[in-house]
Amino acid sequence: MIKLIKNLQSHQLVIEKKANSLQGKISIPGDKSISHRALMLGAMALGETTIEGLLLGEDPRSTAHCFEAMGAKISDLNTEKVIVTGIGQERLQEPSSILDAGNSGTTMRLMLGLLASQPDKFFTVTGDDSLRTRPMSRVIQPLQQMGAIIYGRNSNKNAPLAVIGQNLKPIHYHSPIASAQVKSCILLAGLMTEGKTTVTEPALSRDHSERMLRAFGATLEIDVDTHSVTIEGGAKLQGQTVIVPGDISSAAFWLVAGAITPHSELIIENVGINPTRTGILEALQMMDADITIFNQREAAGEPVADLRVKSSKLKACTLEGSIIPRLIDEIPILAVAACFAQGTTVIKDAEELRVKESDRLKVMALELGKMGAKIREFADGLEIIGGNLLNGADLDSFTDHRIAMSLAIAGLNAQGKTIINRAEAASISYPTFVDTLIKISQ
Ligand code: S3P
Questions:
Q1: Region 356-372: what's the mean pLDDT?
Q2: What amino acid positions are annotated as catalytic residues?
Q3: What separation in Å is there between the alpha carbon of 416 and the centre of ligand 1?
Q4: Average pLDDT of span 152-156
Q5: CB of 151 closer than 8 Å to CB of 161
Q6: How far away, in angstroms, is 105 Cα from ligand 1 center?
Q7: Lowest mean pLDDT among 44-48, 86-90, 119-123, 419-423
Q8: Rg of the chain, C-alpha, whole Å
Q9: Which residue's CA is minimally distant from atom 13 of ligand 1?
Q10: Which of 163, 187, 188, 211 is in the most buried spot, having the most CB atoms within 10 Å?
Q11: Which numeric CATH code is attached to 2-30+245-440?
């Protein structure tokens, strides 16, 4: 039996025993990255943007609230089609209060590119306990090179931040990290800046901003060999219809659950399979997971498919290098898969996980360790010796949505009872996660 105990402050997810089998058809919520971008570009564009399939998680809600406070009109988020009426030719309005990005790094980092480039406007931005510890210098420094004026705590490293918008100048920024948040922040600042702004990254990160900026009317040049993107400033964005595909990062929990749970077959419908995000499929295929990709199609400029996963005998693999940015959010659930794979799985080049919503390397090593997993933590990754039984344990999400959900899938396959404390974190990206977990476990 699986139950969610809702206490005033936090929720406990209780999984009484190992699942015998998982069966069913799952429709997953909208892609978080695409949802943020649809709200932001819609808010900046002329006319109306219709968003179908927007993720109703806490993170996109934070983006919506911020842009409403700066003049965009956004219809009720709880409907099938959300209409955003953008500011068009106007500048963003100076908000009368502090902008709150909540738990969302994407909201804060992408928005900073737009705020820094609004001449003479003053903005203050904050976030929750987790976001206020996360590094903002990775976007503040390049924006400062463009002439931005931004102040923050700890010598401009952390929020709360104060921004005095400026007329910026274009730059060519060589990012030391493959980060779509950094790339998108600079591209959005470049959109508002006369001339050509270029970002080069060491490996390709997700390209949703590039696709959507083009669809809204911006001019971009992309050099796939050097991982460089150039945007021409000054384009007037036009409202569009955006159809948000299901989030492959949310599908990942069911892909692993279906593969590691005996006698299982799950179909996951309408999953975004943008090649900059499909590292999880490649990793699970390397591990011999039985996954079929079918009904491939395109929705509003993004590739989409249905996925089928069946119980599989997994084998260990090594994940490193350029695949890492293409599965960066899936490493916690891949660590769970590795516990059920024969052999030693090694994950390297993943130091970015230390500055996500929690230190995901440390937390996964700690929490899976409590279940008896043979897992070792390194500066940039994990080593997991698979093939040993996991035991149920009293676990904590550390308020990180992807940790909460990864541990739930581990608990579903552990001997005895597992409790996940602060399980409400899942609603950041997947508000209906527990409902689906209960439905397919019956
Ligand atoms: C995101 C990019 C990734 C990812 C995050 C969402 C985005 O972060 O981890 O969940 O929407 O651009 P980085 O770009 O910082 O790696």
A1: 98
A2: 329
A3: 35
A4: 97
A5: yes
A6: 8
A7: 86-90
A8: 21
A9: 179
A10: 188
A11: 3.65.10.10
Helix intervals (H) in 50-128: 58-68, 105-116
CATH number listed for the domain at residues 32-243: 3.65.10.10
Q: Which residues contact 207 (CB under 8 A, 6 or more apart)?
A: 180, 222, 274, 276
pLDDT attached to residue 8? 80
Q: Is 51 helix (H, G, I), strand (E, B) or coil?
A: strand
Nearest CA to ligand 1 atom 9: 329
Sheet holding 99-100, edge to edge: 99-100, 122-126, 158-164, 149-152
Q: Parallel, antiparallel, or unpaired for β 158-164 and 149-152?
A: antiparallel
| Longest Cα separation, the chain | 62
Predicted confidence (pLDDT) per residue in 395-436, tens digit: 999 999 999 999 999 999 999 999 999 999 999 999 999 999
Q: Residue 9's pLDDT is what?
A: 84
Of 244, 328, 401, the one to substitute when testing ligand 1's pocket (max ligand atoms within 8 A of C-beta) is: 328
Task: Give yes or no on whether 2-30+245-440 and 32-243 have one common fold.
Answer: yes
Distance 332 CA to ligand 1 centre (A): 15
Residue among 286, 389, 290, 395 nearest 345 (CA): 286
**Could you tell which of 181, 229, 326, 354 is best to mutate to test the pocket of ligand 1, judged by most ligand atoms within 8 Å of the CB?**
181
Q: What is the model's pTM?
A: 0.98
Lining ligand 1 with CB less than 6 A are 33, 36, 106, 179-181, 184, 205-206, 328-329, 352
Amino acid occupying residue 177? I
Ligand 1 mean position, distance from CA 180 (Å): 6
- Nearest-atom index, ligand 1, CA of 177: 16
pLDDT band at 442 (very low <50, low <70, confident <90, very high): confident
